[in-house]
Automatic annotation (TrEMBL):
Residues 1-26 form the signal peptide. Keywords: Membrane, Metal-binding, Signal, Transmembrane, Transmembrane helix. It comes from Psychrobacillus glaciei. GO terms for molecular function: metal ion binding. Its cofactor is Ca(2+). It comes from the Bacteria. Residues 39-349 form the Glycosyl hydrolase family 13 catalytic domain. This is Glycosyl hydrolase family 13 catalytic domain-containing protein. Pfam families: Alpha-amylase, Alpha-amylase_C_2. One of its GO terms (biological process) is carbohydrate metabolic process.
Amino acid sequence: MNVKKWFVAALLISGLWLTSTKETNAETNASIHNESIYDLYVDRYFNKVVSNDINVNAQDPNAFAGGDFLGIVEKMDHIKDMGFTIISIGPVFATDTYDGKRVLDFNEIEKRFGTPEEFQELIKVAHKKGMKIVVGFPLNNFSENHIWNMDPKKKDWIVNTDNGVMQVDLANPEVQKELEKAIVDFAKKYEIDGVKFSQLEGAPTSFLNDLIAEIKEVRNPMYAIALEESDANLDAHYSNQLLVDFREAFKNTDLPSEGIASTTDNDLLMIDQLNTERFTYFSALENMFPPTRIKIAMGTILAMPGVPYMSYGTEIAMNGQIPQESHQVMNFRVDEDITNYLKDINSIRNKSETLRTGKTELLKNENGYVVFKRYSDKETFIVVVNNTSATQRIDLSSNVVGENKELRGIFESDIVRPDNDGQYRLVLDREVVEIYQVTDRKGLNTAYIVAMCVAYLLFVLFLVIVWKKGKQKRREGKE
């Protein structure tokens, strides 16, 4: 991006800041629709404290690597600078596995991750920075060494203990009561902002709804999400098909994009998650350049209706097909191309209520070329996604844009005004996402021109005075 375009983008972003009536991270109207989520595993993020590195082996992909709560605190500005408002940190309970899923005891914090006081420090720092913390909570498939398995009174809760995994009967009212107590007590003890449920198979929807209602009584906001499909009253819903649609649309150019065109405010939008292959894996199979693929995919997600959701490491194009590959320790010494892009586009989204929750009108959608309008009573944007292998053009009428308007491209384009036929012609290079802000058409800035002329005349007058005084001094020196 050249200097002129950076200047235009800065002006537009500052304008969005001035016209926005809501806080950046929606503190005044807490709703998950105003948020964007960055998902990570504590153990795989950053190792700050060596004293809790118990049986840690960073060379073994199946072992604990040493990441801890204070490591997230250390690197939290990295997440904040990219514009994400929620950090999802996975399960934090005593566990047999680095991902926290093989829970041993819901009443204990995993000591390799840190102390309860350090966990509270993580939450405190996040809140101070205007961010929220969501904690993973598996509802089943715990460690066979879970304390419930050691209690004879709870043996009838357990239906299976194969391969080191303990499965419980989620339809059992006693199990439901115990899980509900564990989650509610945890939410009361620590000022978390939400729960990400997992291992939902076998859980009655009525139980999930009661559980969600109970945790929402603890504080507001208290978000409830899951990366599994469910009919429960979650704040945003996951669809595996939608994830696949995004992945398949953006792994290469010129691919069908119909599946991504009808997202709603209640959808979790993502190109991968920590239980799937990395998006980079699929784009690499296509012999495409992953950073470009990631930028155009995330740029689209951040401009569409829904809740953006990104796995840690996406900003460094982390690759992997299986967990041992895709759950790498985060590497912060990398090129910042994707990071800076996310920072720019998230900055615009966070300052614009319209881009977060406004209405949407689809204008075009054909094999990677998607154009849609985001609008509200306050502002209007035209979003153009050119995920094709060629430059694309679209002509928009005043019926779409409005009368006597102009379009200001935030990233790649200059000001677009209507031609003699009243058409707004948008031309966009390949593999680019552009957001155009619709503004009132401005004529010549008379006051600015007059001020510049006056300044020029004063400068010329100053030079004349200096020249005359110099000439007079030279004359007096000769005398």
